[in-house]
Amino acid sequence: MAFTVKQMSLIVATFGILSFVLGVIAENKKPASGTPETKENIVICHYPSDLTVSLGYLSTVFLAFSTFSGWYSLFYPYQGKSVPRAAFFQNKGFLIFFNVAVATTGLAATFLLWPTIQEQLHHTRKIHHNMETDCPTAKTGILGGGAFLSLDSCLFWLVALMLAGNVRADYFDESLDEVEKIPASYGSGQPLNASV
């Protein structure tokens, strides 16, 4: 099945929005802290059952799908016409937005995975030998920040896709006006004299 630019942009946007929504819900569902239960020389932390860990990982998975789709959409041969990758990276605007998209994707993945893994560790390691523990949870706000960075990443992939379209148009000279202007700009059309 051949994809169009519109279809690819919808795929990238859908995965990015899903990642954002799941990340925000995960942040809102995260408990403030657990309930400590003191026994002889240990403290056992009891946490309410919540979907923070599952939603955090799902948000990360959709971020990965959005990133893969965004990357794939940039270099996909639309209408059977492929463009060398070097042609894309010669365009400064494309290069800047491509690098920003990659950087925000890395930050988003870090901000989504860090609190999710931390929360999972808190839920699995419930027994503490420190009698003063207050049963902490993952840092508040990082997961939500990761969700917003995930949305930013999606938007930067879409901007890079638009700029890739411009690079394609320039590479193939798809504009009829440009094709018609080229012979007129050369002047009389007489051959150049060879100089030795």
From TrEMBL:
The keyword Magnesium does not apply. Residues 1-26 form the signal peptide. It comes from the Eukaryota. Keywords: Membrane, Signal, Transmembrane, Transmembrane helix. It is a multi-pass membrane protein. One of its GO terms (cellular component) is endomembrane system. The chain crosses the membrane at residues 55-74, 94-114, 141-164. Belongs to the DESIGUAL family. This is Uncharacterized protein. It comes from Castilleja foliolosa.
